[in-house]
Design a protein that fits this description.
The complex is a heterodimer of chains A (about 140) and B (about 425). Helix content of chain A is about 20%, strand content about 30%. Chain A is α/β, with parallel strands linked by helices and about 140 residues long. Chain A has a single domain (about 5-135), classed as Phosphohistidine domain (Glucose Oxidase, domain 1). Chain A has a 7-stranded mixed beta barrel with strand order 1-7-6-5-2-8-9. A two-stranded antiparallel sheet of chain A has the order 3-4. In chain A, helix 2 packs across helix 3 (about 90-100). By secondary structure, chain B is α/β, with parallel strands linked by helices. Chain B has 3 domains: about 5-175, Aconitase, domain 3, CATH 3.30.499; about 180-280; about 285-405, Aconitase, domain 3. In chain B, about 40% of the residues lie in helices and about 15% in strands. Chain B has helices at about 5-10, 15-30, 55-65, 90-105, 135-145, 155-165, 195-210, 225-240, 255-265, 275-280, 305-315, 330-335, 345-350, 375-385, 395-405; strands at about 40, 45, 75, 130, 165, 180-185, 215-220, 245, 270, 290-300, 325-330, 350-355, 370-375, 390-395. In chain B, strand 13 (about 370-375), helix 14 (about 375-385) and strand 14 (about 390-395) form a beta-alpha-beta unit. Chain B starts with a helix and ends in a 9-residue tail after the last helix. In chain B, about 55% of the residues are buried. The chains are: A alpha/beta (about 140), B alpha/beta (about 425). The interface between A and B is medium-sized, with 32 and 33 residues.
């Protein structure tokens, strides 16, 4: 089954990948190992999962003001996600990706769900294709 | 987003490539956060003053190579290592941290390397719009000084410094500064608030109960010192991501005359008791007599008044300390005390003064063989995860007694 969701583009771009829906916010600083892309926060429900190459869904902002630096290192090492889907606006990943553009590090798209209730559509999906203002789940 | 002619000029590259990159960043971040415009800020305090890795260096080097310069006074937060001659950090840590600091200096930043910028001369004033990044400082600035700042994230803070502009959203707006719930402390007797430690516990509890919501704290009939309000700010920003609180009759945006108006936006009221607060000590209580291998003070960086109090207490007895007291503070504060305090005498007793960094980072203090005691809830909250040590929280007096005995002293005071 395929579903098409409306999204607001925060950082433009196209991406596709396996879906990783996080059930709690992720603090990139201390919660994500830039050298592997693995979630290492011992309290996180998805601890041990790897974000590398995946379309990750973040339910809420979390973490310190230094978090963009940690995500930037992860992107630089080639261990970052393929795209980030936000449920609520969050400046942290946006700052990391804008910094990547300045540092000539490959960027990734970031979108926000226009309808937070669409989060339910992710339950049965395993793959996401992001193109402009559309997120296609399958 | 509405841009002024000046913003557009920056964006078009009329004012150089570095300014264009910084302005492009601000506009994209502002649109992401649905800000309607950019506003002027008077000063910045940057979080990126520690060694994070190669990608961060790449960004800083690009700005430095473009000749980028900050447009407003910009200070640097604490670093990942102590950089003075008293540093205990391995040399590699010092070299990496120095490189990051030097690159920021090339951009025109002032390397104060402190997490307590409100203790520097001429702190922000009521209504002043600033872009600070250190969480305890943002909470203190919004709540106690009445200045306005979000918890400005890394790189947004730098781009704000390079342009003097920031997207207007969050706590820059009046509407976002309204409290969401009342924290009612009326049942707690006034003398309870004479003990600094109890403000640390209130901060921890507020963070857990309110998260990032703004509380209106009522029923505290006391005159807290700046150090007590600082404790409250730092603890609440650690346990809950708080950026602002109102303390009825005390903080500048909550005079008694405004309290009933502030209550109108509150959707809940939560009464707190003395026991509720004392319960927050439990994770950090330990047992009388437990082995302790060091005391860590100064998270955030110790103030001048805290340093004086420490000196008075330690020098009041001839007893030498059995375990070291590590005190982190700013170079500025330490320089102020150089002539007035008997630093040599304090060092001989076993006090180690560390500047620039925080003792819960990496290898700022030596690896510990037992638990560490602190007077800071923020330190206790972070040290377990960062350093893998057991942290005990207690009053300054208990910390000093513990240092003299090398075993945990709790006494009657919490």
């Amino acid at each position: 089954m395929t579903s098409v969701l409306e999204v607001r583009s925060l950082i433009a771009g196209k991406a596709h990948g396996a879906l990783l829906v996080l059930s709690d916010g992720l603090s990139f600083w201390g919660g994500l190992d830039p050298a592997s892309g693995e979630i290492v926060d011992s309290q996180h429900p998805q601890r041990g999962q790897n974000v590398r190459g995946k379309v990750i869904v973040l339910p809420s902002p979390k973490g310190s003001t230094a978090a963009p630096g940690a995500l930037l290192e992860c992107l630089c090492a080639g261990n970052g996600p393929a795209a980030i889907v936000l449920v609520r606006p969050d400046v942290t990943p946006v700052a990391a990706v804008l910094a990547a553009e300045i540092a000539a590090i490959p960027s990734i798209p970031i979108v926000q769900l226009l309808h937070p209730s669409d989060l339910a559509s992710f339950e049965l999906a395993t793959h996401a294709l992001l193109s402009g203002e559309e997120l296609i789940l399958s | 987003m509405h841009l002024t002619a000046e913003d557009k000029s920056c964006l078009a590259g009329d004012q150089g490539e570095a300014t264009r990159l910084a302005m492009r960043f601000l506009v994209a971040a502002g649109e992401a956060m649905q800000a309607s415009r950019l506003i002027d800020i008077t000063r910045c305090h940057l979080v990126g003053s520690y060694y994070a890795g190669e990608a961060d260096l790449r960004l800083l080097r690009r700005f430095a190579a473009l000749g980028a310069k900050v447009r407003v006074p910009t200070t640097l937060n604490a670093s990942s290592a102590c950089l003075d001659s008293c540093s205990l950090n391995p040399q590699i840590d010092q070299e990496q941290a120095s490189l990051v600091v030097r690159l920021h200096e090339q951009l025109g930043c002032n390397p104060v390397l402190t997490c307590a910028p409100y203790h520097l001369p001429a702190p922000p004033v009521l209504g002043e719009r600033i872009a600070w990044a250190e969480s305890n400082a943002v909470t203190y600035a919004n709540s106690v000084l009445g200045a306005r700042s979000n918890k400005t994230v890394q790189y947004l803070d730098l781009c704000a410094a390079l342009t003097g502009r920031i997207p207007e959203y969050g706590l820059y707006l009046d509407s976002a500064r309204a409290p969401a719930l009342v924290i009612d402390c009326a049942s707690i007797p006034r003398p309870f608030w004479d003990e600094s430690m109890h403000w640390e516990l209130l901060g921890l509890l507020l963070g857990y109960k309110c998260g990032s919501d703004i509380p209106l704290i009522t029923g505290i009939d006391a005159e807290p010192t700046q150090d007590m309000l600082r404790s409250l700010s730092a603890a609440a920003a650690s346990s809950g991501g708080m950026s602002m609180f109102h303390l009825a009759g005390i903080t500048p945006e909550a005079p008694f005359a405004r309290v009933s108006e502030l209550q109108t936006t509150c959707v809940a009221a939560l009464p707190l008791s003395t026991d509720d607060l004392l319960n927050e000590l439990q994770p950090y209580a330990g047992s009388e007599g437990d082995a302790v291998s060091a005391i860590c003070l100064g998270a955030p960086h110790y103030s001048l008044s805290q340093l004086s109090r420490l000196a008075t207490e330690v020098l009041s007895s001839a007893v030498r300390l059995k375990v070291p007291i590590y005190v982190t503070t700013s170079r500025y504060n330490l320089a102020q005390l150089q002539n007035t305090l008997q630093l040599g005498e304090l060092r001989a007793r076993g006090i180690v003064f560390l500047v620039d960094a925080c003792s819960y980072y990496g290898q700022v203090i030596p690896k510990q063989t037992a638990a560490v005691m602190t007077d800071s809830a923020k330190w206790a909250y972070y040290a377990g995860g960062n350093l893998g040590v057991n942290a005990y929280l207690g009053s300054l007096e208990n910390c000093i007694e513990t240092a003299r005995l090398g075993r945990l002293v709790r006494g009657d005071r919490s």
